[in-house]
Each structure stands twice: as C-alpha cells, then as structure tokens.
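Running this now, will post back.
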Amino acid sequence: MSPGLGLAYPWGRDVRRGTPVVVTMENPNYSVVEIDGPGAEALRAGLPPADKGRGRRAKQFTWVLLLRAHRAAGCLASLAAVFWALPSAVAKRFRRAASAAAEGSGHGRGWMLYRFIKGFLALSLLALAVELAAYWSGWHFQRPNLAVPELRVPEVEEIQGWAHLAYLTWMSFRADYIRRPIEFLSKACILLFVVQSLDRLVLCLGCFWIKLKNIKPRIEGDPFREGSGYLHPMVLVQIPMCNEKEVYEQSISAACQLDWPRDKFLIQVLDDSSDESIQMLIKTEVSKWTKQGVNIVYRHRVLRTGYKAGNLKSAMSCDYVKNYEFVVIFDADFQPSPDFLKKTIPHFEGNPEIGLVQARWSFVNKDENLLTRLQNINLCFHFEVEQQVNGVFLNFFGFNGTAGVWRIQALEESGGWLERTTVEDMDIALRAHLNGWKFIFLNDVKVLCELPESYEAYRKQQHRWHSGPMHFFRLCLLDIITAKISSWKKANLILLFFLLRKLILPFYSFTLFCVILPLTMFVPEAELSVWVICYVPVCMSFLNILPSPRSFPFIVPYLLFENTLSVTKFNAMLSGLFKLGSSYEWIVTKKSGRSSELDLFTAEDKDKKGAMLPQFQKQLPEKGELVEINVPRKQHKKVSHDTEKANKIYKMELALSLLLLTAATRSLLSAQGIHFYFLLFQGVSFLVVGLDLIGEQIS
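Update: finished.
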C-alpha cells in the first residue's frame, strides 16, 4: 500500500491488545514458602499476610492514570496531525483536479446529473439570499399553527414597498403551486421507503428464525472418512484475472493447495492481462506449481471481448471440460481454505436438482479504515441475511460471481456464459433459476478476499454493481414473464429482486434525502416529518448492523455514508436503465494484495516485485528457456503513469455538500432543529467523501 499523507485516522486499524494469560509453574524444586521474607511465617501458618500492598496499589493506580493520559495525549496528537496535514492535502487535490480538467476533454460519468445538482445549488443559494434579506427586514412570517398550511398574509397597509410585495407574492405562489407537487413526490418516496423498510424487516425476521431453529444445509455423515468409499468427482477450478499483479500469486497458491486428489481436479488460470510483464509473472507462477505436480494450465486471450463473461465462456469451450462434473470460480483476490471442496462438493451428492453451492465472503482488511468498516457492514448483511434467507426459503439468490461451485450441466442447460451484460453472475443465476435449478448458500463456509480500500475503487465497483442489474433487467424482463414458473416466483423476481432492491432503493434514497429534504427547507409549507428523516433510517441502520455487532459504534457514520453513496447508485441505476454509455463498462477493482489481516507488508513487496525494469528475464514454462522481454520506453512510461494512484476530488459530492449545507442554513430561519442537524451532518459527510478523505490516503 502506498504511503499515507500523515492523516492518521483514529478510526483506522484496531489496536492489537495482548490477551491476559495465567501461567502456572509446577516445579518440585521451588516453593513459595521456602523463600524467606516478611510474610513467610504467616504463609507457613496459613494466616493471611499483613496488608502492606496499599502503597503498591496506589502506585499501580498512578501508573494506570499515567498510561491513560499518555494514550489520550497520543489521540490528541494524531488529531492535531490530521488537521495540520488536511489543508495542504486538500489544496493538492484541488490543483490536481484543475490540471486534470484542463487536460481532459468531453463529459465524464454522470455529467447530466452533475449539471442538475449545480443548477439546484445555484437556485438554493439565490433562495437563501432572498430569505436572509427577508428575515433581516422582518418579513419572515411564521405559521400560527403548524397543522394549518396557510400563511397569514399581511394587510395592504402593512406592505413595505415593492420588494415586500414581491416577497409576499412569492410566498403565496409557493404555498399554492409548489407545495403540492413536493408533497406528492415526498409521499411517494415515503411510501417506497416504508415498503423497502418492511422488506428489510421481513428478511431480518427470516434470519432470526433460521438462527432460532438452527436451519442450515447439512452433509449426511462424513463422506471422507476412511472406508466410506466416496468417489471424488472431477472438479475444474477457474481463476479469471486481468492485470492484477498484486493478488495473482496468493490466489493461485491457495487454489493449488486445495485438499482434493490431484488427478481429480484441474486449475485454469484465465489471464486477460494486457501488460506483458504481468503475463510473464503469472506464467512463472503457473510453471512453479506445475513442477510440483499440480494440474494447472495458463490461458491468455489476445482479444478481451465480453470481459469476465467472455473469459469464462472461452475457458468452458475447451475439449477437456466435458470430463469434469463441477466448476469452481475464484476471483483473483480470493483465497479458499484447503478444505473448501470438501465442504461444498458433498452438498451435490444425492441432490440432482442443485445447480449452485455458494460460499460466503470474509475480508482480510475489514478494519483497515473507515471505508472498509462501512463496506463490511453492508456485505455482512448481504450474506448473513439476504443470501441466507433467500437460499433457505426460496432456493434462489444472485450468484456472487466467485467462491461458488456450479454443476456444469446446469451451466450448459441454462445457455452458458453470455457477454450481454457486466453482471454475468446474475445473468447465469437467473437463467438457471428459470430452468428449475436450485441453489444452496453456505453461511459457515467463508473464503478470504479483499475490500476496496480507496473510495475511487469502491465508487467504480458500486457503479458496475448497480448499473449492470438495471441493464440486465431490460434484457430479461420478457424471459421472466414468459417463463414456465409459478406466478409468485415471477412476482418475487420482478417486484422484489429487481424493482425494490435494485431500482427503488437508490431512487428514493437519493430523491428523498438529497433533493426533497433540502427543497422543503426553501418551501417550509411541505415540511417532512421527523420520523422520516430520523427514526426509521436509524432503525433500518440498526437492522443492517445486527449481523456485524462489532460495528455498532459506527451506526451514525454508516447512516450518513449510505445516503452519501446514494448519488453514485442513483446515477448508476439511471445509466443501466436507460442504457447510457457507462452501463456496459468494466473496470477492474484495485487490490492491495493482502493475504491475511496481519499481513502489513505484502502490498509493498508486490509493488517492488511488479515495478521491474523495462528489460528483465523470466523462464517460460512452455520452452524451458530464458527469454528476454524488452518493453519500449514509451510504453513503460505509459504503464507506470496509468497505474499511479492518487486521491481525487469528486465534484458531484462536493456540489451536494454545498447544497445540503445551504439548506441547513435556511432551516435555522424556520427553527427546524432535527432537520438542521441532519442536513449539517449529511453535508459534512458529502464534504468528506467529495474531498476523498474517507478511504486510503495516498501521497
């Protein structure tokens, strides 16, 4: 990982504390009573020793106070260092953003939404200026009764000139014509909000029932005990990757150490890398394991069509695939435990209708920074609640794209991998479900992987995860309607799986909290209720955090961050729904290359290993000879420039931050306390994200 900016956040990595250990020493040559001392006679007589430890306890108490004071001083010093380094870091990012804007051309992702937010911000600033002028002039009339939306209009003799008359006309116009559309839109969003909250509550109740009854898929007996006569099926392991030099070694190593007969499984390393140096590194790693007797092959595509789906489709077209019964897929940053196949493959035994067994993800860097902690909350809820409940009660859920075992027959009968969308995992899972195949989710089988540590990587990942489903929904809606499945399954797919959880959630979250709420500050006649902006969101955040109880201290940052990320999800949803340019865009999520939670230096070692000279030597496994690769200087400089990481400025989030802070200022004039605090903290949250201060800090 690249060095930081000196912004040592107190919410970063956990402080490792030692575990108290009681050591009992049993030695016949030593005894406590044999040691002469002031209390020896009392000990021999069995009497309690004299209370002479009061001074010692006072000293210990003093040392505890000093240690706590030292720790508090360290925290204050860290905060001071953060605030000291913050202005220069923000200034550098603004300069970098200005230079990038001067060099760049065309419109970036979400430019239409950005223009809308800028226009809304300009109108808000203008409205705030008018309201402040009216307030200082004494024209700001309050409603005598909050239950009555009408305003008291002054008499003719009370009007103080044309400006006062214009302001009164504006107040009457907004109360008669602007209030009603806002109230209608807010009530629609509140209805969607309540429906989505009820769906979340039902999922949590289902998860509670599963825990209460201890419901989970089980393997009958121990099929791998001696003398059981278990016949190991043929298993194909696929590791698709693309320019992922940080993680290729650990993923290949973990797959090669799977506990399965070596003549019963084959590993395909599916490399789509465009960098020749990374290709050579992966070939060398494959060659190393081949010499150790592992059945592993290296495949590289010259034309990277169809992204990951095209890569998997090309690998499944090999002639030897017909000899295998199951296929396991691991992304490049996944590290399965050696017993992964023994915990998953037996679930297919005696269940010919099972097409997929999905394992859970576990994260090696969940405590790296605030961003990874908040991601861990979302993904724990996804696996612990959504996937588990759908797997137990519906035998269907969305394939997560990795850490899953497919029956090859199910893949073939469902049409195989298609290159029509960037969510190929959801595509194949839906088609398999429509063909009658059932899925199993194993919540107790976990596979280590990484979370994006920078906001840029996480933002791009979320864009693909939310634009892809909407793009795919346009393609599969007719197939769902005409499928030969029950009506309630069709309703579950269309209304819950797609509309409610993929479309409605980002729509109402952005519209309600980023558009309607600040708008009601300038149109106070259409005020939102407190329970909408406070009580229900806090309760829903509480339910989301239940699967990861260690994250309860982060419930408020989690609530604010979810609303902050709604602008990215909303933009991605529109992109996929209306088939805009970025709906079919795949950007590989950056990895740091951690193999465990305690692995602090792996990323640096990977960078050193990958940042090689333009001229270097590696041994090819095919020819067994030493081959020299000369990378042109221009190309080498370009590669190093492309891979350079830096924190950025996100204009859309900054614009929304200014909008919400402007609305918070306006709310003070109406004495709306809870609205002011919500808008203030939400505006600060957008500001922190817009300045890229939430994730990995890079110098």
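The first strand starts at residue 235 and ends at 241. More later if anyone needs it.
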